[in-house]
Amino acid sequence: MKRAGFATKWLPITLLLPQLIIIAVFFYWPAAHAIHSSLYLQDPFGFGSTFVGAENYSDLAGNSEYRRIAWFTVVFTILVTFFSLAIALLLAVKADKVIRGARSYRTLLMWVYAVAPPVAGFIGLIMFNQSWGPLTRFFQSLGWDFKLGVNYMDTATAMVIVSVWKQIPVNFIFFLSGLQSIPRSVREAALIDNRSASGRFWDVTFPLLAPTAFFLLIINITYSLFETFGVIDTLVKGEPGNNPMTLVYKVYVDGFRGNDMGGSSAQSVVLMVLVLALTVFQFRLVERRIHYT
Amino acid sequence: MSEANQAALAAAIITPKKRRRPIRGADVLDHAVLIIGSLLMLVPLIMVFQMTTLPDVEVMKTGPTFEIGNELGPNFDKAMFQASGFSGENTGTNMLKNSFILGIGFAVGKIIIGMMAAYAIVYFRLRFASFAFWIIFTTLLLPLEVRILPSYEVVQKLGMLNTYHGLIVPLIASATATFFFRQYFRSVPEELVEAARIDGAGPVKFFIDILVPLSKTMIAAMFIIMFVFGWNQYLWPTMITTEEDMFTLVRGIKQITQDLEGNNIPEYGRANLLALIAILPPVLVVIFFQSWFVKGLTESDK
To answer: Do A256 and B129 touch (CB under 8 A)?
Structure first.
């Protein structure tokens, strides 16, 4: 609040009301509902529900399929985060260095940001077409008989590739603007101190980029968990079958298709706790350890 | 000129270049990396576009090639005006319209509601201001995806399935825009309010005549980011629109993909063109307004 604010009483309440109503109805009500119904076993045909306490949760913990999906989600998240951050960092460092064509490169490297994940998934379907997909052919030339939607590992690989492709621009934008905000004097001092370009990068530039990198780490984990839904749904053509899937996709499949409201809600609550933990981690632990300039 | 002198001259000309050569080599490498990166981003799109210029039969046999055919027009007609889907009501034009309603409606709604709330929080002495702030900002913690089923049930109970407000309003229930505007308003010098008060401006006048014009760039940046975000929504529209004439292009991708599964000849031209049309508006917005967009995206942390 500003010191010199206004003292009117009803105006601010009126101004806040639309936001508060929308949040109450479409955020707090559903969130509370998820927690509530995770404690009940709902009849799939809608004839009432029985209180089962933590049973939905213990079912999850004991469910080997759920554990397998959770494990896949972890591996998927690590791969997508690592590759999209690494490639974006490389491109940003190069784009920061070149003078000629810098703007064109920036445009060419960031436009994919605006592509919706399911549309990226659609492009993936074309690239991995079984008979003539360019990437399928590429893998075949390496002796890998790539079968999207048939082979578990192959489908997982396609999911990672498409998700990384879609995420590189976001990381690129943040890394590039992080690099460009490093003061010229710091760069010049580093140039005198350290002749090797890679030495300069790891000793000076990278530590200064650390806040951006940690912020992006959280952003990327959240992206891999949630926003890849569209990529996955398109690549498996809405038919999960024996294909790999992430935890969010499982919530959708169990709740919307399988009508297992209790189980699906319990999964939602597990994810809520996960996201909350990530956010707390971001605010508390990470930010405190990084030195901002 | 003697040979020795020529050699010296040549050396003099060459030497400075020679000295710069290692940097040049690095330059070439930099550009090579950037060009490869740009191609990785661009080539898939070019392939999808190339396939829209060929008849479906040819695409089915060969996939993307270097040949540009002349089927673009007919494929465009098919994609935009020919009805498809089970109800036969769903044309590309209609999906395009719905996408614009969702993108613009979401962006405008979010900006208006966010600005109002941020103004109330920053500029008024409210007893419960910090409580309201806390209530609003917890929404940043849980993405729609984790509360998707209960949200669906709520919308169903309110009878908002297959409506535009059912599509747009629940998406507004997160505080990103409020957060951006709060940060921005706090950076506005306090002297401005004092001066406005001395001049006799009330809170409404100050907001409309001073604060809104002052935030123009911020509003533009927000609009671009939110438009792209709204246009690209998939999971929420997938759940709450079941009637095909309510589909957006991105929601319709599911149907579009099924064109590739046809029993006879998959409709590659139609499907690829619809995918391109789904990509085009948000990409153009981002390319044309990239400095605003980057500014809005990176200047605040979330």
So the answer is: no
Residue B124 β-bridge partners? A6
pLDDT in tens, B119-174: 998 888 877 878 888 888 888 878 888 888 889 989 999 999 999 999 999 999 88
CB B206 within 8 A of CB B193: yes
Reading the block at residue A91, the tokens are 């491109």
> CA B241 to CA B248: how far, in whole Å?
9
Shortest Cα distance from A137 to chain B (angstroms)? Answer: 11
What local confidence, expressed as pLDDT, does residue B32 receive? 94
Pairwise CB contact (< 8 Å): A229 & B235: yes
Please name the member of A256, A265, A268 whose beta carbon is closest to the beta carbon of B239.
A256
Q: In the structure encoding, which two tokens stand for residue A273, read together? A: 């706790």
Nearest residue to B242 (alpha-carbon basis) of B255, B259, B232: B255
Judge whether residue A266 has pLDDT over 50.
yes
Q: How far apart are CA A188 and CA A175, in angstroms?
A: 20
Per-residue pLDDT, A44:
59
Closest chain A residue to the Cα of B191, Cα to Cα: A4
More confident position, A18 or B146: A18
Q: What is the pLDDT of residues A196-206, one digit of tens each?
A: 878 888 888 88
Tokens of A199: 């030495």
> How far is the C-alpha of B272 from the C-alpha of B53, rounded, in Å?
10
Reported ipTM: the value is 0.87
CA-to-CA separations, B206 to A104, A219, B119, B195, B202, in angstroms, rounded: 41, 36, 11, 10, 6
